[in-house]
Amino acid sequence: MENSFVAKIERFDMQGGWHYVPVPLALSKPLEYLAVHFGFIAVTAKVGRSSWATSLLPKGDGTHFIALPAKVRSKEKLSLGAEIEISFEARKKQGSRVGYHMARGMPPAEPRNNYINPQMSPAVSHANSWSNCRSGLTAESLI
């Protein structure tokens, strides 16, 4: 199913910041079950005559955005602040756990993230995630 919306091109405020369009929550929220790897949702985006494989990327506040590559901006003559019509369609990533579960009629697997644990410092959390490796690094060895 293709989703289409009109949005203003924005840019992240940092040197080399990406140009992007924010995706309305009404369009991204129903697709969150497809999210893999830190909340990325695989899509094919289209602006004008250009289409490209990309992802709905999480902004960290519950919303998503679509990055606009320089080659697309150049080809379609898009500039910062311009309002554009953009459409996207969800695509299934090769080898994703979501595809495995959906094909069997099961709910999608919960994303695993062994690195981030708000109760631990990053160093201890990192050590715990690698505690089974040959180096023998454990959280206790860092304390």
Structural key phrases:
single chain; 143 residues; alpha+beta; Elongation Factor Tu (Ef-tu), domain 3; 2 domains; 7-stranded antiparallel β-sheet; 5 helices; 29% strand
Description of the structure:
This protein is of the alpha+beta class and 143 residues long. The chain has two domains: 2-102, AF2212/PG0164-like (Elongation Factor Tu (Ef-tu), domain 3), CATH 2.40.30; 113-143, no CATH class. 21% of the residues lie in helices and 29% in strands. It has helices spanning 25-28, 70-76, 97-103, 122-129, 139-142, and strands at residues 2-8, 10-11, 19-23, 41-47, 50-58, 64-67, 83-90. It has a seven-stranded antiparallel sheet. A hairpin with a 2-residue loop joins strand 4 and strand 5. The longest helix is centred in the C-terminal third of the chain and has 8 residues, at 122-129. It is globular, with a radius of gyration of 19 Å. The chain starts with a strand and ends with a helix. Mean pLDDT is 78; it is low at 121-134.
Quick gist of this model?
With 143 residues, this protein is of the alpha+beta class. The chain has helices at 25-28, 70-76, 97-103, 122-129, 139-142; strands at 2-8, 10-11, 19-23, 41-47, 50-58, 64-67, 83-90.
